[in-house]
Amino acid sequence: MTNLILRLALPSPLRRLFDYRAPPGVPASALQPGTRLRVPFGRREVVGVLVETAPHSDVPEDKLKAALQLLDSRPLLPPALFRLCLWTAQYYQHSLGDTLSWALPVLLRQGEPAEVRQEQVWTQVPGASLDDPRLSRAPRQREALRTLAQHPQGVPHSLLGKLELNRDSLELLRDKGLVQVSVRARTVKPHHGGWLAQAELPLNAEQSAATEAVRASFGGFRPFLLAGVTGSGKTEVYLQLIRQTLEAGKQALVLIPEINLGPQTLDRFARRFNARIALLHSGLNDRERLDAWLAARDGDAEIVIGTRSALFTPLKNPGLIIVDEEHDASYKQQEGLRYHARDLALMRARQENLPILLGSATPSLESLHNAATGRYALLKLTQRAGGAQAPRFLRLDVKSLPLDSGISGPLQQAMRQTLEAGQQVLVFLNRRGFAPTLFCQDCGWISQCPRCDARMTVHQRHHELRCHHCGHAERTPHNCPKCNHVDLRPLGTGTERAEERLNTLFPDYPVLRIDRDSTARKGAMEQLFTTINKGEPCVLVGTQMLAKGHHFPRVTLVAILDADGGLFSADFRAPERMAQMIVQVAGRAGRADQPGRVIIQSQLADHPLLVQLTEQGYFAFAEQALAERRAAGLPPFSHLALLRAEAHRPGQAEGFLDLACVEAEALLEELQVAGGIELLGPVPAPMERRAGRYRAQLLLQGNSRAPLHRLLHAWLPRLEQLPDSRAVRWSLDVDPIDLF
Ligand code: ADP
Ligand code: ZN
Ligand code: ZN
């Protein structure tokens, strides 16, 4: 026996490794970093990942337990990806064990073998006959044999249920020697004429230049920002680069935002290539996820497409990473390990020596800044592909106009005109439900959520008030709960109300609502799209679900009912988000031969950012917005980390943060990194109470990243030691994108 100590990352929030002795009988050479082991942990058994071995441990000999079992004969992850996980845990100040839990498929965390499942296949034994006398009194077995006889290739175990084949009957048939079960060998790669299943479009000059630039960087790390207006053919650039990646014998990883994971996007990839595509998204079951992950790791899938967490998919032969709609907020995980998949994709590309292409019509200010400073190569597509024209903008000042369920008179006219011309209208309103508040005319009561500092939204169709922050719901009262009068009025407009009003305004045209409520039913979204694609005049009203990735060739008028939230908000990122939203929604208009119009209703129609955006476009807006960020010392000109805390007792979260603040100040002295780091707070969160808890936050702002991270690294272990650190729920968000 060796006295080798294994240092493991375990699924625990604690930011440390755990020491074990080697499992009995396992040679030291088999214990490679990156392999999984089953170990005793408290009263449970858990699966950990070996990070390193050491000759001795600080844990006393008699306390040191032995690992139970080695689960892998080789490291689970390729070295580069394992290093990325280590880096991720460090950077986001998160426990390594928990980081690996986010990065690995559930079944692997549970100890499932990391091998492609050898599937059992049931086949009829040659010569077996339905007339076998042993079956004369066994109708079910006879039926099962008949079904198998119809499948000469055999029936895989997973399909037994679908074919109504009963396992017991098959076992009995096997005992009689009429049926056999075998393990199907892994399918051999099909030979095919080429990677393309469909002809490529001839690229225009800008597309060619972009494609050529990235191709020239194959084999080395280089980040590119593909800034292409909506409909400029970014996807075609991706597709042609993927083809070139496949031709080079490599795999491509494509990250897409959650909302783009529609059949439309995926079809485009699937139809183009004779290649295996592994899809990784939240809709998969655990087995499907593991199979896709293994196919990517073993090189059986040449193309990997997925949402945020697909970033952690191992690739045997990585050649290219693409991040589509790189500005999209869904790349940032907002719980547990608060990573940004785009930022990690860059780190991954660097570690694996790959080109990476970030694409968007509305790049994040961070990425534009990186392009401006030369860290990213900027590739521009300025024209819509296929000849469609850019939409025209009109800012409609509604300061002194009466709004009818949020819709002004001039807007109604424009809509009527469009519908009468046989075209479609898209009405965008980023608020679901009927109205954001219920209000008593008599005493001023408003529909406050009992668990949050927020108002409950009126959902008329379900006669409910719902809190969109904690999920609390109650029946809409008939009388005011405070003064008992019946003068309750919904205030403001949500999609449900807009839909109702549009139905009365335009009774001759269908009004289709598209939001989380109307598409909750399975297949509802497809049904709506089928109607839209018929091309008949209609009105689409919906939330950001409408804004992204879709082609609505017959939409020629886009109406944005309320753009002002982004101009009033306290969040410094709000104008950026508003601009991205407007441009993305506008991008749905006039994508085919008819030119499109965009009407933006605003109380602040002369706001400089709005003027710049609509008259000079997103890039002019972004330049202006970046100048403002620079003047205010905000990201990307500084770096942030946000410590959030919440507790049941008022003041408790702030108490914890006060102590945290004291620790941070002490550390700034000790580490002598004081220069350029500011502690802002603690302050109550903008929504102080949510779901019954009181919340507060402490913001750290640093001029440069390294000292800030040095502080965080020393700070976190101290926070774990604070007296309230278990009573208070707290978390650190490095590079937060929401400041609440
Ligand atoms: P984006 O991803 O930038 O929104 P798409 O790649 O979806 O743009 O392209 C928009 C439309 O233009 C699609 O219908 C696409 O088929 C078409 N298109 C793209 N590139 C070309 C090209 N080079 N020639 C003709 N049509 C093109
Ligand atoms: Zn009242
Ligand atoms: Zn609530």
Helix content: 25-40%
Q: Can you tell me the residue ranges where pLDDT is under 50 for at least 5 consecutive residues? A: none
Total domains, how many?
A: 5
Mean pLDDT across residues: 90
The CATH architecture of the largest domain: 3-Layer(aba) Sandwich
- Distinct ligands, ions and cofactors found in the model: adenosine-5'-diphosphate, zinc ion
Helix/strand class: alpha/beta
Described by strand count, sense and barrel closure, the largest sheet is: 7 strands, parallel
The CATH superfamily of the largest domain appears as: P-loop containing nucleotide triphosphate hydrolases
Q: What integer value in Å does the Rg equal?
A: 29 Å
Gap between N and C termini: 53 Å
What coarse outline follows from CA principal-axis ratios?
globular
Enumerate the strands of the largest sheet in spatial order, edge to edge or round the barrel: 11-12-10-13-14-9-15
CATH structural fold name of the largest domain: Rossmann fold
CATH hierarchy, class of the largest domain: Alpha Beta
Helices, by number, come to: 20
Query: How big a fraction of the residues is strand?
Result: 15-25%
Q: Please report the total strand number as a whole number.
A: 32
